[in-house]
Specification:
By secondary structure, this protein is α/β, with parallel strands linked by helices. Helices cover 50% and strands 14% of the residues. The radius of gyration is 19 Å and the shape is globular.
Amino acid sequence: MTAKPPRNIGVLHPGAMGAAVAHALASNNHGVGWCAKGRSKATTLRASGLREFGSLLDLCLWADTIISIVPPHAAIATARDVAAVGFQGLYVDANAISPATAATVKATVEQSGATYVDGGIIGPPPAKGQTSRLYLSGKKAADVAPLFEGSSFEAPVLPGPGDFTASALKMVYAAWTKGSAAMLMATAQAAEGLGVLEALQSEWEHSAPEIARRYERTSDAVGPKAWRYVGEMLEIASTLEATGQPAGFHHAAARVYERIAETHPRETDNASA
């Protein structure tokens, strides 16, 4: 059931995931806006049908809720920009950032009187008939979850008093999924350098076909996204280090993605689109 009354929601920014979130909200009859200033042509195409604003100030004056979905390295800067224009509504940070970075974002937006809600997205932009999950936490998380009822995004509210448990869940989930993907890519690159990649793939097919299938999927998909994963790996390293776990795994994973990004075009021509 659609949340009533409809809300005015600004999405920063309609990249591949941000556009999916924006259109899910629009499908529930909410007003959904975006800031066109500095955005790419690809972003403009993804934002088709959404309400376009020429400046962040205009968007924030109109919206009662802002959802931030940007590359991890841009999360704090985006929060600063929103705080600088005096936004005082709900600010949902749905970025792949550590709890420590989330705490900085919270403190930043609260300077202007906004209310912080922590978010963490797990799953790709949902295809038709599929759903992904936007986990929420914090005191006002229950005010955000109904916005997505019946849409292509489930919005579970995590129990407990923690302000940053959604970010924590995202970090530990991606620590394995994207961390292990980086190890797989590094392994294959080493095999190629040693002249045994074909033999390794043949052995995978024989003794570990699930690895062969995963390598095929990963090598096809990761290149255009690798630039975004660099910052995410560093955020995961910070998260693990804060709990007393070794951070070296994910510092190395960041370097793997950095090297992949050097030879692959980005999935968008705007770093925070």
